[in-house]
Amino acid sequence: MLHFLTQLFGLFEKLLSTSPTVLATATNIDERINQFLDPFISALEKVIFFSIKLTDQVSLPIVVVWLFAAALIFTLYFKFLNFRGFKHAFDIIRGKYDEPDSDGEVSHFQALTAALSGTVGIGNISGVALAISLGGAGATFWMIMAGIFGMATKFVECTLAVKYRLVHENGVVSGGPMYYLWKGLKDIGREKTGKGLALAYAIPAVGCSFGGGCMIQINQATKQLINVTGGQNSFLYGQGWIFGLIVAIITGSIIIGGIKSIAKVTSRIVPLMVVVYLSAAFVVIGAHYQEIPSALLHIITEGFNPKAMAGGFIGVLVIGVQRAAFSNEAGIGQAATAHAPAKTEHPVSEGFVGMIEPFVDTVLVCTVTALVIILTNSFDPSATEGVELTSRAFASVISWFPIVLSIAVILFALSTMISCSYYGLKAWTYIFGENKVADLSYKLIFCIFVVIGSSLSLTAVFRFGDAMAFAMCAPNIIGLYWLAPIVKKDLKQYRQWIKDYDLKREKEMVKS
């Protein structure tokens, strides 16, 4: 606590000592804002990204170990359910065990697409390129590992999100980490601890929704649109706020309707964009089919290179929110908020559905993106703009694809923003109460940040978004460890229900 207070007072000292003369050295508004925010963000990073020094050049943040260790522990604790439960998860998604008359607002499939829209997006397109540029081809190996083991963490989060959700009189559902930390720990006699952890989660969750969930998305979408419309000669160059205003209006019109409206949009956008994106990626990979075996071997061998391991972990799990393996948010807990409104009386069923997120987001989409970049030899150690790098990789085989990619980026960014606005809203209303004033005030502020994010550089935004996201994983995973035995007990009961349900259906089929 003393260390934290010292850091905090040091932060205020730096902010107060930042004179107008210093800010005047900045050449534009971006630089002015970055200079002003830098002391604040640097102080946050020192606290949140406390690191172990591996070499003179590389340090490993403790938070990375925290996330990866949790994924491994839950994989072992649930006896590799992330492998054994794969088929059952798809049975639920395709409606085999639907419970349409249960409490909730959306189907299993809609809940999945709403959650995927918050994870499949800019991170898969731009963040993977940056991760590989930092850690080399071996970063891809750690992406896949993080995704596979993260499925177990996601199972626990999504099960708890449904189990401890609040269903209001009007049928609207409030759920997510804030609620299972509060209500779940209350169930085991740790109410005060639960309330403290829930608040510690909710505050950075709001910040993350504005930073990583909003500003980063619109920023990268604006940059890609400017690039394909002429770069410095584009009518939007220097006027990105125009595009931001248009997107803010569209976003506002969608999020005003709540999770039902969001789910209707994402259930259409996400499958379409994933199919388009993967189809193009497979064309590029197919054009280099002879090099695929050597590329895969390179990924595996480099994955165990000390530089690749450090670079992979840092690039995949630290470089940014919703990028590479970290884009699936396993351990962060945000996506569980989208699963909470699923129509089901069996929370474990939604836990199975949630497991598919890291698989689609990381094992499938991120890995395919990585292969495109590796096979086209497009990664660049000096890269700072991931979207441009990925765009060049596709253009090396499909010359016109940057135009399609710009549309995909915009739609991915839009779907991510509307999902993240829901996550942030639930954290906001947890803090300020479930009422119309809190609801509308958050949505208005979110739309304002859409406009701001479209016209600023992403340096400070990325760093702030990362810090807020990682701040959430500490209280979330502490709660998950305490509540995992409850999930295990529910899993046993659920398996019995599935056996009875399947037996009943078999008997009905025999009769008919």
Automatic annotation (TrEMBL):
It is found in: Cell membrane. It holds the Pfam family Na_Ala_symp. InterPro entries: Na/Ala_symport. The chain crosses the membrane at residues 58-78, 196-218, 238-257, 269-289, 309-326, 359-379, 399-423, 444-462, 468-487. Keywords: Cell membrane, Membrane, Symport, Transmembrane, Transmembrane helix, Transport. It is a multi-pass membrane protein. Belongs to the alanine or glycine:cation symporter (AGCS) (TC 2.A.25) family. NCBIfam families: agcS. This is Alanine glycine permease. It comes from Persicobacter psychrovividus.
